[in-house]
Amino acid sequence: MLFGYVLSGDYTTASHSGPFNLLSSNYSALVDGKPGVKTLFKQTGAVAPATLQLNFSFGGAQQFEWLLPYPYLMLGVVNIGNARMEDAGTANQLTPSVKFTVNGRWNGGGAKTSQALVGPSGYSSAWAVIRKDEIVGGAATSTLQVELTGTFNSGVQAAFGNFGIGEVVIVGADYLPLRSVTQGIGGLAPTNRASGNLPWPLARSPFRTVNGVLAPESRADAFITPIHNSRNYMQMTAMAARKSGCVIAPYWRDQGTAGPNLTVLNNNAMMARLMSQPPSLAGSATENRYSGTFAFEELL
After folding, report:
1. Does position 76 have pLDDT exceeding 70, yes or no?
2. Is the pLDDT of residue 169 over 80?
3. What pTM value is reported for the model?
4. Which residues 6+ apart lie within 8 Å of 172 measured at CB?
5. Do residues 203 and 111 share a domain?
6. Is 197 found in the same domain as 155?
7. How many structural domains is the chain composed of?
8. For 202, which DSSP code?
9. In terms of residue numbers, what domain contains 212?
10. Which of 138, 173, 208 is the last residue of a domain?
11. In 10 A of CB 16, how many CB atoms?
12. Count of Cβ atoms closer than 10 Å to residue 276 Cβ
């Protein structure tokens, strides 16, 4: 599992270019850690496909910069459009091609491209991953450019006259070696019943849940100085509890490969929050190996 922390509002400037007007008052909702709160745009012409370019600059010590032991950098654009799960596979869903470009040392492998798709939660998102072994040089990464190319003026978008983007993500991510993963659905609509036993379902949006059991790891990786990650597992848990949200990908590549499988990644990556119970970390004094549990629920 890839596991990172959301950097809420951690940018200095933001802008966009292309045949689009910004309908929201600013870009803050793109980096607020709330993928369900959208920044709204409107295409100004009928050209299709069109490219919307989002530009961000960062100042100071960024989490994905000063903790270079991070083995991965995760990039994402979450909740694109205004359509619902029922519109999956139709012109009402926006599934643009997406290109992520960062500057500096994390750009050793060049721009990363992805194809937005409608995941299990019903909204369109695109994700990419940069590995630490692609880092070249020492120049700090201080800008992120996201280009979305697609047909934005069709279906539900044309009816509304606008479309939204929930979140743009750039986070340093660690790798959690899990020996088991359990995924489920939370928030299923409860049903009240009136007199005569008439059902009245309450409208709620289901969300994904992920529970992972950590493979037995060394004492160093568990709670001292990690060998393979930027933080030990106890530090990861404590930091995640302080943040507005996390980014996780329980499945993101094919077995035995180093690079991501984008279809697997886009179907499984999500913004989430660490649930209060578990996590836990338990050790074996005789074997000097440590395991634990992590539980997440999706942010919508």
Report:
1. yes
2. yes
3. 0.89
4. 4, 5, 63, 64, 67, 70, 72, 73, 74, 230
5. no
6. no
7. 2
8. P
9. 178-298
10. 173
11. 17
12. 8
Mean pLDDT of the residues in the chain: 84
Question: Using an 8 Å Cβ cutoff, are 263 and 275 in contact?
Answer: no
Q: According to the model, what pLDDT value does residue 300 have?
A: 82
Q: Are residues 15 and 64 in the same domain?
A: yes
Is 2 within a domain? no
Name residues whose C-beta falls within 8 Å of residue 211's C-beta, 6 or more positions apart in sequence: 181, 182, 183, 184, 278, 293, 294, 295, 296
Lowest mean pLDDT among 4-18, 155-169, 245-259: 4-18
- 47 shares a domain with 133: yes
Query: And the tokens for 5?
Result: 């922390």
Looking at the fold, whether 38 and 146 belong to one and the same domain comes out as yes
32: pLDDT strictly greater than 90: no
Q: Are residues 148 and 227 in the same domain?
A: no
Length of the chain: 300
Cα gap 272→275, rounded to integer Å: 9
H or E stretch covering 102: strand 97-102
Residue 224: phi and psi, rounded to 5, are -120, -120
Predicted local confidence at residue 237, as pLDDT = 80
Supply the CATH number for residue 119's domain.
2.60.120
Over range 213-231, report the average pLDDT: 81
Domain boundary among 173, 191, 211: 173
Q: Distance between CA atoms of 283 and 291, rounded to whole angstroms?
A: 6
> Which residues pair with residue 209 across a beta bridge?
184, 297
